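About this split. The held-out portion is used to measure sequence recovery: a designer receives only the structure tokens and must propose an amino acid at every position. Recovery is the fraction of positions where the proposal matches the reference. Here is one held-out target exactly as it appears in the evaluation file.
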């Protein structure tokens, strides 16, 4: 077993940001929540399903978060896969190798749905043995103190069927002007062309709130979605206000 001591997620409604914060804290990269949420552009995004499904906060194209991350002084390397792809098992193996190599270098990782459909810090792994395939040790929603090992062959093999795994390493931050300009440029791009970032039956910005209002008025708003979205979006709006 190889683990990174004192590497955990930082509890946040936006588990992606909570995992990044935990990884950055472990690496000694000091960054405030507003700067993290704002610099990655996440603070400027809202995504709401027409029936306020709990998937709204995570079911959108987050690729820009990874592009903007280096401005804040860290680099990510990762893998993405879907359960229905022919090479899915190969991608699972590649994700496990990515984690092993990163942990061996002292770099934390994080991935999607190690337990529930949220992001989790991966702080360790077990090597395969004669009667064991090897697996992950992780920390995240519902598993704050740590869980594992979870077989690497279970990653992404869920009803949602999405595999995501990323390593986090130190980098050189950009100057503040570059960071702010890039984040605000993304915010404007997202507002001008939301279809590039969100799926059918979802809406962002003011139209997202219109979805919420219409679902409540029609009695179609998901109870779980109401609770979850009510937790997530105020967290983002606070960091939007404080970011810059």
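Reference sequence for scoring:
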């Amino acid at each position: 077993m190889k683990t990174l001591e004192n590497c955990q997620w930082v509890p946040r409604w936006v588990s992606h940001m909570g995992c990044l914060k935990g990884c950055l804290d472990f690496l000694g990269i000091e960054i405030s929540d507003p700067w993290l949420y704002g610099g990655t552009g996440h603070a400027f995004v809202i995504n709401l399903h027409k029936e306020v499904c709990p998937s709204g906060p995570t079911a959108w194209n987050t690729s820009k978060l990874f592009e903007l991350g280096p401005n804040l002084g860290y680099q990510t390397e990762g893998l993405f896969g879907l359960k229905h792809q022919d090479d899915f098992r190969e991608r699972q193996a590649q994700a496990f190798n990515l984690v092993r190599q990163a942990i061996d270098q002292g770099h934390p990782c994080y991935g999607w749905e190690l337990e529930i459909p949220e992001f989790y810090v991966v702080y360790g792994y077990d090597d395969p043995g004669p009667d064991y395939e090897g697996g992950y040790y992780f920390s995240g929603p519902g598993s704050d103190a740590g869980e594992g090992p979870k077989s690497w062959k279970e990653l992404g093999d869920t009803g949602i069927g999405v595999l995501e795994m990323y390593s986090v390493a130190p980098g050189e931050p950009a100057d503040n002007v570059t960071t702010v300009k890039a984040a605000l440029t993304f915010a404007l791009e997202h507002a001008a062309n939301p279809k590039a970032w969100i799926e059918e039956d979802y809406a962002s910005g003011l139209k997202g709130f219109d979805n919420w209002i219409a679902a409540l008025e029609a009695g179609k708003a998901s109870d779980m979605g109401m609770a979850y979205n009510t937790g997530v979006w105020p967290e983002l709006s606070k960091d939007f206000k404080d970011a810059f």
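Annotator remark: Residues 223-243 form the longest helix (21 residues).
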